[in-house]
Amino acid sequence: MIRGTWSLNEPLVPANISAIMVRMGQEKGISQDALLENTQIDPAAFSDPKARLTYQQVIILTNNMLKLYDAPTLGLELGNAININQFGMLGYAILSCANLRQALNLGLKYHVLIDPAFNFEVSEQEDITSVRLTSHIPIESIYNLLSDVFLTNFISLGQFLTGLDLMPKAININRSKPDYFEVYQEYFPNCPIHWDQPRTEILIDSSLLDTPTTLADEATAKMAESQCADILSRMGPREGIVVKVRRILLSNPGHFPPIETVASHLATSTRTLSRSLQEVSTSYQKILDEVRKEMAIEYLKTSNLPIEEIAALIGYNDPSNFRKAFKRWTGQPPSYYRASK
Q: Are 151 and 131 spatial neighbours (Cβ–Cβ below 8 Å)?
């Protein structure tokens, strides 16, 4: 294993979160046996607060759920159903924070305790703060579900922590508008939702971060955070290999190194890196394409740069090759995103 990363076969994901998915399925009339098929999950784990599943088990369970649940809004429903209690000691720490800013920063610091594949970042400007999903899961159906979970869970947790009916200024989603897009408006009333964006993010008034929480307790917050830090130190550094590769690619935008250079940065061999990426159903080329796609959409939507310059900025000397690649990545020509500015 590459140093500092986690593998699909390590028990790192709290079982109680997957238990919510199983319960939702059973409420729809799906048997537990059908949901757990090929997962090798012992149902007793769902009642054990210390039990953890491997990410491989979670992926199989999620795929089973997606096949059997027969509702495209599964992610939205799941995000709404997950509450602070499912986060264990981290949830206890967040619950005791003084305000939303402190809670958000704590989640940012210790989210790996809940899901090693889930990553987000916070960009706080003077008036608007963006909470961005930065995970890259190469399985489209699971990534889309995670995006929906991210949207509803962040907002529902903010409302629970403050007791207020908080709503974002806007939501950006980095995929095409689905046939059931109206459902999103039901979950986020009076909130503009923008599709085909470079990233999935929640935009909120920065002033909302100072909103006090209803159960703030400084002593409890310090104690709980100390426990989180202790758990994290025992686990050791845990970060997904995809996140590490993306970080290297984004460290010098437009000048993307070959896989050999990335492997060298990670103190491993090209062969080991390729194998590690294959284990999580992706490759260096797929990650590079995803980074280029995000950058290209960002340039198309936020600048008036000509296509030739955008192509060069993401590493294409020939604009026609860029156009072909972009159509392959998104199913649309670059002009589609420019027209939707």
A: no
